Amino acid sequence: MNLLPGRAERALENYRPTGRLDRMMLKLPTDDSRGFELTAALNNVGVRAHDGAPGASGLDGTLFVDRNGGFVRVSNDELSLGFPDLFRGFWSLRDVRAGVAWRFEGGVTRVYADDIGMVYGANTRLTGAFDLRMDQGGEDNLGLKVGVRDGTADMLADFVPVKVVDPDLYQWLTTAITKADIPSGEFYGHGQIDRDAPENSFSSSMVYRFEEASIRYDERWPEVADASGEVFIQDGRTRVDIRSGRTGGLELEPGEVRVVPEGEGIQLYVDASAPVPGSALAFWMDNSPLGELAGEAGRSITLDGDFHLDLGLGLPLVSDAPPTIKASVRADSGTLTYPEADLQWTQVNGELGFSSDEGFSENPLQAHFMGAPVTVLMRRSENAQSLNIRQYGRLDVRQLLDRTELPDSMDMGLSGDIGYQATLDVSPDTASAVTLYSDLAGLSVDWPDPLAKGIDDEAPLRVTVTPRQESGVDLSVDWQDRANLDMTWQAGMVDIALNELVLGDRQLTNMTVSARQSDSEWLVTADSEWTSGRVVWPRDDQPVSVDLERLTLYRSDSETDEGQESERQAQTFRDLEISNWPDVNVRIADLNMDGESAGSWSFQLRPDAAQLRVQDIVGALKSLTLTGELDWSIATGREVTRFTGDINGNSLADLGTLVGAEIPFRSKNTAVKLDIDWPGRPDQFDVSGLSGSVSVRFDDGVILEGNNTAQLFRVFNLLNADTLWRRLKLDFSDLYEAGVAFDAISGKASMINGLLTLDPELQVVGPSGAFKLTGTSNMVEETLDMSMVVVLPLTQNLPLAALLMGAGAPIGGALFVLDKVLGDPLSKLTSATYSVSGSWDEPDVRLRRVFDTGN
User: Tell me, what's the pLDDT at 441?
Assistant: First the structure.
């Protein structure tokens, strides 16, 4: 029988109640009013969700129904409730107290409740209300409110309306917030829900407050922990206001996270700010995309001090597109260190802004680098693929040298300071290159010419350092008009290509140097047009071995350096820290000087605190052999070079290539013993300070005529026919166009500061007579103060004897008769003494006495 109205019948069909009705009472009218009343006690009743109305099971309570509607009052210890059109499943609830009513108002059915209360989980209290209006001739609308108290993060999957929230947003909300206490929260929903409802006609919003939360907003960035704030969700848009929290060692200031649908995707925006201790950088480099952006060099940087970060991130949730970044970092007396290069910037101040769309701000940072103030600018390249960092400043060369392994007092001949520009290009695809440019104005370079430079001179230098992809660095050096080289450095190996080295009017090109490290030594090989050989540098204290097959050297055309004051000389010597030099054994198979062979050489360098000793010197120069020892030292507070040794062999002229001067001499036998010293370095040889002793013996040779030899060897012109015999107006058969022949020359001399004193004499013996020279010569002024005795056998030179005595031909004839009568006493000797003064070029020779041996 049809006891209920058609609408009620349909409701029963749609909701399909289950369970029992106890103490049911049905009142039916006795007239045609069609009124009725039904009351009952609900016992484990369930209803199916339908048209936005919730479904439930396990309901206990009371029921009232009449023809205009009804109501249910529920009081349960446990039940199941759900809104399957909104949420993912049914909720298991306890301590449920609720009342739900419905009304039939014309063509509209209204189901509503406003006093729902229950407990979810351990201690989470839920409250709710809803109002469902179903219009047979119009729209079906639902209004819903759910309140939460004392919730936890694991509830979010159940209480976020998965059926109306974008799936990607739902995924983020239910996975990003991994832990949270939710003191309170509310969900509101309102809108059309029938089958013909337009898209987005149901509006929902949610707000809940959280504490002690952990939010992993993106798997590539550090988690936010101990966060507190509020979450707002409105029609697919989410905003998280964070009052406080911690992430990556940072204490966050108030910020927000927003999830916004954009086109077909969803964008996550993070706006955060925090004071940043320098110690937090390493964590962020290892645990965020910042490490990839900064590259290997960036991950090696350490920071000290306090900084402040304002960070804005845009992170796509459903694509692999790169994040958008907007950041600003403020520094106040911070310190940045790059340990791999032993570089440090201190007192870093300023604000640096960065946008992934626009690059870096133009605001410079101020800092101190190597003790001097610098300005640092950053900008992105035009193609947005690389970062350009520029630093401007001045650098004290002493500060630079102090960072090397050189002794503290060694300045390498460099002093002053330079202005420079350093540029670093950071690219994700290529190794970052550092370029250093300076005109070197302000730098004094006390090196041998032509590499020397005055403090005010400009000599542009450009150095580029490029890390290699696998390991090591490439170094390119261009020192304008001086040198150009390329170098590759890797662990255990160094390769250098010296493209050009300018030495005055000469250019050395195409030299290669390779160094390889083994367990016991470094092996260095070099090859070029001017040298070829190898150097072995042991890792222990054994001497370094330098073995050159050939070496070509060129003399400088510049004047010798002016002498320094003794104290400055001594300090310059001390600055070299020679005691730190290694022992070196040197062999040169073929030495070439200015294009001529200077023989083969070997020697040993033995440095100590006060001197550099070059010992066991052996040089083979054509027919000559030079042996000896050279000491470069500080003696009595001044810098001194001393050489002791011997020269033995055939012609002394073979020494000319080594000394760079033609020697007016030829001999079949040479024996020279030297013990000489001069102030300054070994290369500062100067007769003005020459002291010591020398002894010589030459046999069977000739003194060349018309010679223009410079310096010391010009003294031989005194014995040249062009300067002496012509003045005597004599003619001997043993004189040749080449010069004066001799059988032997021997003698000794001492020198004090350039003054040569024959000790006791220099003897020259020729086929027709002999010379004996005594006295002094000033080698600086090239002047003479000497006596010369000419000794001739009388029997061979009677006409000469007459001329020596100023006699005419009759006297000469008489002497010839006397010689025949008297025999040996007169025939043994005819001698004359001359004074020799004037200069080496124009000696003044005057006859003083005859028949005088000069004794």
Answer: 93
